[in-house]
Amino acid sequence: MGASWITTCSPWSAFATLAALTTSALVLGYVSSSLLGQQAAYEYDDAYSPDAEPSGPAAPPRRGAGYPPVFAYYITGGRGDCLRMTRLLKAAYHPRNRYLLHLDAGAGAYERARLARYVRSEQVFLEYANVHVVGKGDALDGRGPSAVAAVLRGAAVLLRVGAEWDWLVTLSAADYPLVTQDDLLYAFSSVPRDLSFIDHRPDSETHHVVVLDQNLLQSTNAEISIASGHREKPDAFDLFRGSPWPILSRAFTEHCVAAPDNLPRTLLMYFSNSLEAKEFYFQTVMANSPRFRNSTVNHSLRVNVPPPPPQSAGQQARYDALVAGGAAFAGRFGDDEALLQRIDEEVLRRPLDGITPGEWCAVGGGEDGAGECSVGGDIDAVRQGAAGRKLASLMAGLVGTAPCGGCNS
Ligand SMILES: *[C@@H]1O[C@H](CO)[C@@H](O)[C@H](O)[C@H]1NC(C)=O
Ligand SMILES: *[C@@H]1O[C@H](CO)[C@@H](O)[C@H](O)[C@H]1NC(C)=O
């Protein structure tokens, strides 16, 4: 019910949340031990503790030929984003996938605890044990290199907790899916799993501003500051720029996190003084790596939400613009409740405050969108609809034109 959902994220439940966490040793995923009254213990290289999970997943996804892929989602938000994040999680949920939710340092411990409590309160998330909450938020400014550092940290955690996944999808709390997960899994079943989807173009600017991102140095959010002076374009590598929300293959993600080749590391240092580093980092690493350049599609499968019209008259056109392109995700949504609700009803068929239904739902979740999803269904089967076929054909077109050796398998 909508009411109980709102209660879950309201400030009033914060004390109950803390009490619940304090009295229970069972903390899902990465809820920081600072909530248990100790110093924050979660760090980059904390060992992942399987004991922290209730009882292991009800049914791990089957993988390999003939089975759909697995996505790892890194969803990031800031102060006040708890509600948006839970809504996005429900809209984009599938038991096959992994989800790592990150509220940055701008959000308080209460809000993070509320989010963790919400995750623990949903039976499906507990049964499949595939939703994790970062216990201590990173300080970041979305325009600075700290945002890249946060994504790399999230990717490293996901590589560790989600044993096997195929693609990393990074979303902000203000984004939303435009297809069901069944449709997304169906569409991605048709392409080679080493493909990345990174919209990119050569950067035409010749002088870049130099910034100082204090978030790399401190534990609370700070605005980045612009330093005086500019710097010339480098000549050791070519700069590329594109959407800050790419979909990365597991191989490419590992390449950036583990950096067996020095390039990802060198570029991390180069971009540590750059504005909009998230629009450059993955794009530039990829485009300067012969191995990954050949397995990248120049598209992020995303659309931008058109700005709100002055009158409500333009709403229909906005909705049409979003769904017409056949993209998988859209962002950023402002206070677009009407638009989101329409996507819930007409595209995702998500019941009020429920999880987007799919073939995996054991009961209910039919075309009528009634009934809540529950555990016990077949999570290795997906049911594609018109949106899935549209996305698959968009992808087939992109892959066909990609500069892509050996990816048409
Ligand atoms: C990627 O596509 C965009 C247009 O969608 C184009 O402007 C850009 O040049 C392309 N990037 C490359 C590297 O070809
Ligand atoms: C990438 O593709 C180009 C042309 O399609 C080819 O010449 C080159 O050898 C490929 N590189 C790798 C590393 O596969």
Automatic annotation (TrEMBL):
> Which keywords accompany this UniProt record?
Glycoprotein, Glycosyltransferase, Membrane, Transferase, Transmembrane, Transmembrane helix
Q: What is its main location?
A: membrane
InterPro entries the UniProt entry points to:
GLCAT14A/B/C, Glyco_trans_14
Q: What is this protein called?
A: Beta-glucuronosyltransferase GlcAT14A
Q: Does the keyword Glycosyltransferase apply?
A: yes
Provide the taxonomic classification. Answer: Eukaryota, Viridiplantae, Streptophyta, Embryophyta, Tracheophyta
GO CC list: membrane
Q: Does the keyword Membrane apply?
A: yes
Show the stretches that span the lipid bilayer: 12-31
Whose protein is this, by species? Zea mays (Maize)
Q: Which domain of life is it from?
A: Eukaryota
Question: What are the boundaries of the signal sequence?
Answer: none
Membrane topology type, per the record? Single-pass type II membrane protein
What would you give as a GO molecular function for this chain, any one?
Answer: glucuronosyltransferase activity
Cellular compartments annotated: Membrane
PANTHER family (alphabetical): GLYCOSYLTRANSFERASE, OS01G0772500 PROTEIN
